[in-house]
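Give me structure tokens for this 249-residue protein.
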Amino acid sequence: MMKDVSNKVLIDPSLIVAENSTYRTLEAVQAFSRLEPQFEFYYPQSLSKLIQKPEWYEERWAPKYFLGNAYPSTPAEIRKFFKNTKKVVSGFQVKAEQRETHYRFYEALRAEVEFLLGILEEGEGIFDETRKIFPKRRAHFDEDIMNILFEEWVFLNDFSWIVSRIKQPFTKFIAVGGASIQFSKRATDLLIRNTLKKTDDELLSKADRLRAFGKWVAVGGPSIAGIIASPLFSSITSIPVGFFILFDP
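Here you go.
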């Protein structure tokens, strides 16, 4: 029997720091808070620390990891987002017991940072996942990004949903030890039509509604137990630690 589906949703920084999505995300949060008040929205607490750094205000380069090909939003627009959503969006911070539970994943992220820093010490640039070279001071993956991703990982596994404009955070989860099943929009629709359990249907329908925020929607933790137990996935006998479902565009 699947546990109650969580209504907690974490907003990935890619939906906040990009010029073409800051206002759209603000509108989506406000609309959901009126029309579907059961949802609870969060953002990674470490993001608020990152965007207060002098480099962000002076050059707007710090959160490049979450920009993709988008142009960064202005500090004024970012502050406006947090001001106008403070009643319905909260910062999510990892608790001590959660850090202990997920310490292996944290150490895997830290090893990645140390590896990249080691490369930087040997040269002026670094290759990121897209094989582009960036100056040392603009390296994509550093400790600030690591802290944000760790908060996202804990939220995904202990609570429920993450919505994102880009796939990169989920790709990093998999790269350092996470596991996932990826569904296309068409596959999701087929599952909704063919599922026999009402609870499963609600989960998949909710994933479809959350696409209003971004292209990528992920769900993990106890919320996916019913889906994995479905005969459609009879070859999966148990849910591995750090497993999530990713719904793509």
